[in-house]
Amino acid sequence: MSKEPILVTRSSMPTMEEFIKEIEPIWDTAWLTNMGPKHQQLEKELIDYMGVEGLQLFTNGHMALELCIQAFKLQGEVITTPFTFASTTHAIVRNNLTPVFCDINPQDYTMDVTKLESLITEKTCAIVPVHVYGNMCNVAEIERIAKKHNLKVIYDAAHAFGVKVNGVGAGCFGDASMFSFHATKVFNTIEGGAVTFSQPWLKKELYNLKNFGIVDAEHVGEVGGNAKMNEFQAAMGICNLRHVDTEIAKRKAVVERYRSRLQGVAGIAVTSEQAGIQSNYAYFPAVFDETVFGKTRDEIFEALAEENVFARKYFYPLTNSYDCYKGTYSVEDTPVAQWVAKRVLTLPLFADLPLADVDRICDIILKK
Ligand SMILES: *Cc1c(COP(=O)(O)O)cnc(C)c1O
Fold this sequence. Notes:
The chain has about 375 residues and is α/β, with parallel strands linked by helices. Helix content is about 35%, strand content about 15%. The strands form four sheets. The protein has a seven-stranded mixed sheet with strand order 1-9-8-5-4-2-3, with helices on both faces. β10 and β11 (about 220) form a beta hairpin. The longest helix has about 30 residues, at about 230-260. The structure holds pyridoxal-5'-phosphate (PLP).
């Protein structure tokens, strides 16, 4: 095994010099956290970049989602999908709400909106759909159904930073959207996250919830948490934001190379561009149908690992099959999600992945 390992992702970083220049002023003020100047600057820059009306920063995406759900003071059932990261389902359950799992569609792996309405009961209070891999949900149809049944819509947009729908930012849909700025995401603040929204009351509400529910020096109005983004995280974000468009363009070139090699191969399904949607090329999922392709996903995973290439079974397992939810939910309710989760691999994808490496990865996959 002579070749350098190729990992599934590699975090985007500014040069060390750029970062040091950005953090230097922190030594003048000794203002390390609690919504300091870097925090305020990043918030403004992101509102501008994402084209949203309101945005609150958080220390990570999960706490952003958990506290955003708390802000709506919901009770009862929340319709979501199990084809996601642990965070989505956990955020619902940790708010004492009951997740109801809707299946995904086999084209872009987001919520199957044709199955959504049949899951609505008088207990349903909200929908938490997930924009997966940089693909957008059918936001128009979700909005129509939510309006008709008077439901809140909170998107898990952890994968959707920089994505646009007919020129409109991904954070402009539903009542709120959560973005993750984790090291492995398209745009990172080391750890970090944000909630975007248009209703003005959410600004103060989210601000208070991420700061223990403190209203002022002598008043604590709510049982909040601590989920403030610190100044060093914000400084990393300010640097990375300068380069994110270039990074997305490089990701696009990697994805196009993968598509040129794998699209149309019998037994491999790869995603195409969604009509009207400007993607961020966050992930490149390939779904292997063993009955046609001749090899299982796990065999491909192993074959790549033997050549020092590390893909990821993502999302697998489904959240409704986790040990912590055993006996509570059933994967039988979401057969498409179950089918895909058993067969999907996200292939290595990051801005600086050489196209020659993409070719090597495809050669291993296609070797009979
Ligand atoms: C990354 C991710 C999260 C959680 O974000 P963190 O910033 O890691 O807390 C939530 N949902 C999805 C779909 C994710 O990929």
